[in-house]
């Protein structure tokens, strides 16, 4: 990994930063080896608690995709279409 995660160190607490980084990590795992649907959705739910604004979500996830090549949107969309117990594999 030779890129940085888009985070807001000014407004987010240490715990919130960890939770957002965890969500980005889950998206990476979905692309690299697959991740449990429930784990990804739980991480996304927490991400949305920290980043409730759709425009801010698009900005952050766009920055993440630009840096990493991994799309939060596509990973979450696939997860939403899967059944409980399935793996998200991009």
TrEMBL record:
Pfam families: UPF0223 (PF05256). It comes from the Bacteria. InterPro entries: BH2638-like_sf (IPR023324), UPF0223 (IPR007920). NCBIfam families: PRK04387.1. This is UPF0223 protein YktA. It comes from Halobacillus faecis. The lineage of its organism: Bacteria, Bacillati, Bacillota, Bacilli, Bacillales.
């Amino acid at each position: 990994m030779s890129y940085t995660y888009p985070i807001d160190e000014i407004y987010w607490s240490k715990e919130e930063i960890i939770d957002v980084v965890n969500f980005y990590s889950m998206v990476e795992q979905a692309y690299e080896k697959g991740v449990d649907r429930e784990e990804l959705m739980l991480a996304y739910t927490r991400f949305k608690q920290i980043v409730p604004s759709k425009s801010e979500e698009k900005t952050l996830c766009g920055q993440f995709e630009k840096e990493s090549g991994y799309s939060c949107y596509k990973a979450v969309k696939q997860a939403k279409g899967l059944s409980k117990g399935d793996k998200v594999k991009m």
